[in-house]
Amino acid sequence: MNYQGLTDLELLEQIGNRDRDALATLYERYGRRVFGLAVRILSDSVSSEEVTQDVFMSVWRRGATYTSKKGKFTTWLFSIAHNRTIDELRKRRRDRSRTNDDIDDHLNLESGDVSPADATVAQSEYAKIRAAMENLPDEQKNVVELSYFKGLTQTEIATKTGQPLGTVKTRMRLALKKLRKALSAEIGTQV
Predict the structure, then answer these.
(1) What CATH number does the domain containing 16 carry?
(2) Cut 0.70: pTM above it
(3) For the chain, what is the domain count?
(4) For 12-31, how does the pLDDT look when each residue is reduced to its tens digit (9 = 90+)?
(5) Tell me: the pLDDT tens digits for 111-154?
(6) First-to-final CA distance of the chain
């Protein structure tokens, strides 16, 4: 079977039948991008590799339950990746209460553990995201930074900023809508 010619949904159907080659094909398509997302947030290639493996194990276990009613496959996949990465970040924060005021420190790709190709892809995507974020109003940008780069929940953001939870949720929703629109134009239809 030519797996490269199959759509993501067809591959998920094959994964539902426990076809490991279908999972390997999805990993080839999206593994580097999932890893790039994790390494941008965690700044640690070893933990990012573990997160990437966990994400694709989730696809293996839950792939058969995915339907297009849940949205695009890539949105579903990167939601799993983001949530798993944030879980790892929170675990680290609990284990060693470390704080970092400079969100750009999360993009620490200078170590020799990350391949030049992965570093280039991650830096390029990071630059596009940062550029799109610069166009957000400060209130929306702050909420996104606290959530996606610091790993705070919306409740934690509301407490930290002194804003009502509803305001935080609205700002997050509006910011993500604007980012999705800006990045869809920049990166393509995969956002």
Answers:
(1) 1.10.1740.10
(2) no
(3) 2
(4) 999 999 999 999 999 999 99
(5) 445 556 656 666 677 777 777 888 888 898 888 888 877 778 88
(6) 29
